[in-house]
Amino acid sequence: MKDKKPIDRKRESSGMADIGTKEDGAIEQMIKIGERLIILKEKSIYEFMMADDVDPERTNINLPSNIHKRLIDKGSESEMVCRVFLTANTLLNKGRFEESIEIEKALNLTLDLIQELAILESEIESFLSTENEVSKEYESRRDKKVSYSIPSIGNAKNRCTTIFQKADHIEQTLMKIVTIFYPNEGLTQQSHFPRLAEIIKSKHGEKDGFSQFFDSILDFMKLIRNLRNALDHQLDSVKVYDFELLPNSDVLAPSIELDFKGSRLERQSLSELLKTLIPNFIFICEGTIIHLVNHNFIRSLMSQEIREIPEEKRRNKYVSYSFWSPIGDGGYYDQ
User: Fold this and answer.
1) pLDDT at position 26, please?
2) Helix or strand holding residue 116 (H, E)
3) What is the pLDDT of residue 4?
4) What is the average pLDDT across 153-166?
5) DSSP, residue by residue, 249-281
6) In angstroms, rounded to a whole number, what is the distance separating the alpha carbons of residues 56 and 70?
7) Residue 319, Cα to own-chain centre: how many angstroms?
8) Model confidence, pTM
């Protein structure tokens, strides 16, 4: 028998691995998506790789036997992660769909989705933190005998533009997921929700749950798209104001107004608008995934359907939907 090379002995030997840090919390779940192994911890998500995944030809003996990289610093305790990624993982089971539907691709895109949501949330939190700090500094010196200085974010419009660009990316990733389930409808990543809503209503009817879901979210999605376009192209139809001194000596916090392509915002607090983005996007991402699955899974003899999980039966408090089967008392929720 031919002796193994040192690199073969190293790669094929047993071992152990520590994933992340103690601050990440405990490992809650290991999720296989195709060839990827995703490690869900309480406060983070990692991808775990073996050396052969990185170097299949075994050319580098110095490569560690296993490697992990953090994908996002949010985990099973995060509402965002649970309602988007874990809901998708609960519902997107290969055996429930036609082979033509690329379930692994859809799951990988939901990972991209929560990463984009986390980036957006970070940008929003940075803006809100800066506004709060500047406001506190102003309040601390407003009654002191020093030269009068109006507080300022400094680059409010540029920061606002960045935020709405990143918000628009979320719709693009959602559209990538949609095209997996509706590949023959002429939709692309660059399509937008109003066009998707027309297709869904045409296919399933005005009174269908998916159609009604779109009725509830389209104004918001149009607003995000129009804000992004108006800011990106520096149009006069959108105005972003930094702190502003009023004639009565009051100081108005950063604000925004828009009148563009049917989207109209009366001048309002920018921070209050930004605070609505993440909750709305989580609702939209979760709802889109649920409705896509509901209209595309294979109906079986067991009369399976998607149902909301009663709170007392949930494995995770934020994962609210699963497949349900009429088995036993109250039925079985496949979590």
Assistant:
1) 95
2) helix 103-141
3) 82
4) 94
5) S-EEPPEEEEEETTEEEEEEEHHHHHHTHHHHH
6) 22
7) 15
8) 0.92
Residue type at 121? E
Helix (H) or strand (E) holding 51: helix 51-54
How many CB atoms neighbour CB 258 within 10 A? Answer: 22
Strand, helix or coil for residue 29: strand
pLDDT in tens, 183-223: 999 999 999 999 999 999 999 999 999 999 999 999 999 99
Tokens of 81: 């992660």
- CA distance linking residue 302 with residue 325, whole number of Å: 7
Give the residue among 38, 41, 53 at the shortest CA–CA distance from 104: 38
In contact, 27 and 77? CB cutoff 8 Å:
no
- Cα–Cα distance between 153 and 172 in angstroms, integer? 29
Radius of gyration of the chain (CA): 24
- Cα distance between residue 101 and residue 297, in whole Å: 10
Q: How far apart are CA 176 and CA 332, in angstroms?
A: 32
* Range in 104-113, 141-150, 164-173, 283-292 with the lowest mean pLDDT: 141-150
